Amino acid sequence: MSKLGQVVEAIEKYNKFVLDQVKRARTDEQFGRELLGRWNDIKAKTPVTHTPTGLPLPRLALPEIDEPGEIARYLFDEGLPGEFPFLNGAYREMYLEPVREIEAGSYGRKTSANGAKGKANGDGARPPEEPTRLFSGLMLAEDTNERFHYLTQHQRTQRLSTAFDGPTLYGIDSDADGVFGKVGEGGVAIDTVEDMVRLYDGFDLGSPNFSASMTISGPASIIMAMYIAAAKRRFGPKVVPKLRGTIQADIFKEVQAQNETIFPIEASLRFLTDMVEFTTHEMPRWYPISISGYHIGEAGSTPVQQAAYTLSNGFAYAEMFAARGIPVDQFGPRLSFFLDCGLDAEYIALARVSRRIWAIGMRDAFGAGPRGQLFKLHTQTSGRSLIAAEFKNNLTRTAAELMLAYMNATNSCHSNSADEPFTTPSEEWIRLAAHGQAILLEESGIFKHTMNMLSGSPGMKAVERAVEAAILDEFREIERLGGVLAAVEDRYQRSQIQNAAHRYEQQIYEGIRTIIGLNKYRNGEDDAPEIKLARTPRKKQQLQVDRLAKFKKTNADKAKRTLDKLVAVVDRGENCFPALLEAVEVCSLGQITGRLQEVVGRFRPMV
Amino acid sequence: MPAPIRILTAVPICDGHDSAINTINLEFIRHGIEVIYLGYHRSVGDIVRAALQEDVRAIGVSSYNGGHVEFFAEVVDLLRKRGASDIKVFGGGGGTITHDDAAAMKRKGVDTIFFAGTSLTEMVDYVRKNYGKPREKRPRPKSFDQELAHKLSEIEEAAGKSRKHRTSKIKHRTSKVIGFTGPGGAGKTTLIDELVLRFLNQNPKGRIAILSHDPSVIGEGALLGDRATMINSQDDRVFMRSMATRGQAGGLSPATHDCLALLAESNFDYVIIETVGTGQEAMPFQKNGIVDLTVLVMNPDYGSRLQLQKIVMLDLANIVVVNKSDLQRARTAHTEIEQRLEQNRRDQQLIDTVAKRHRDPGVDDLFDVISMVGRDRRAPRRRGRENL
Question: The whole model's pTM is what?
Answer without folding.
Answer: 0.90
